Amino acid sequence: MFKYNEVKSEAERIKRDFPIINYFHGLVNSGLLKYEGIQGKEHFFGFLSQRTGSIAVDDQANVWYDHSAGRGGDIIEAVQVFENMTFPQSIQRLAGSIPTNIIPPKKKTQTAPKIEIDGINTISHPALVNYIRSRGLEPNEILAFAKEIHWKNKGKSYFAVGFPNESAGWVLRSSIFKGNILGGGISIQILGKPKRIKVFEGWFDFLSYLKLSEASDFKAIILNSTANLSFRLILDILKEKENIDLYLDNDVTGENFTISFIKIAQLYHYCHENKLTTDWNLNALKGNRDKIGKLIDNLGINPSEEKQIWKVTTDISDQRSFFKGFKDVNDFSLNNPNI
Questions:
Q1: Could you report the per-residue pLDDT of 107-155, keeping only the tens digit for each?
Q2: Structural domains in the chain plus CATH codes
Q3: Are 183 and 172 in contact (CB under 8 A)?
Q4: pTM of this prediction?
Q5: Do 80 and 90 touch, CB atoms closer than 8 A?
Q6: Which residue(s) pair with 190 in the sheet?
Q7: Nearest-10 crossing angle of helices 4-17, 87-94
């Protein structure tokens, strides 16, 4: 077993060097998961009881995300979840050379069964109409953004409310299904002549905000999952516009991402003011849990000056007070229908 002072460095080595795709193929070989193939840049896996795999593995970024459970992370977090181990146990499990018992024999790349879109229509199915109403909206209120998507996978037919994303795929939602087809990632909507950028966790938060506020002239970035709110995306948003409103959930995850977003914005603004580069080398931050701290060090900012960063005023607005006491914008709208 590692000593405490060795754990951190070993964890960083594992996250950097251990191919996460091998680990998930090992879970397939052990009978825990099934492999669904490749869609876009991601490999998909699923539990044997699932109709379609919900676990996306990005072998380039070396991370995973379970869309049905709303969780994900690095290789160590995968061992904690799928083998029910503690953090130290996971480090011990993966320590040393890459264990041969979880690396599958090299196989010919499998291709996911082709998903066939059967129809893209105006929403009319009673089940989907009822689902939309259960979210506090009417089909005509989301007509400009949503479609009724019918598709086939492995010969079986499915349907759901579909919203477009930036991967030319669809974000699918119904009372029994949550996932993506033909690619995942964020969605973007531009209303009028944008003066601000507004960031929402999901489509129903965005749509509920529109219903409540009747706002226009903004660019909406809909994450579809907080896993998509990467350091890279935050930097790209800041480079486009520094007038930003955040509508993330009132939970621990929403709190953490809101704080991180604001801190990155303060550092970005500080670099502008002090003529430091804002073309940050984000690849140099891989494997670091404290990416902001590592970036500050890489930028050569003296530790004695760091406190000045957190005094920087930005036009990043945390809008969670708007729906205080409720999980998210949609939850607030459901409980305040007459506002």
A1: 444 444 567 888 999 999 999 999 999 999 999 999 999 999 998 877 7
A2: 4-102 (3.90.580.10), 116-181 (no CATH), 187-335 (3.40.1360)
A3: no
A4: 0.69
A5: yes
A6: 219
A7: 60
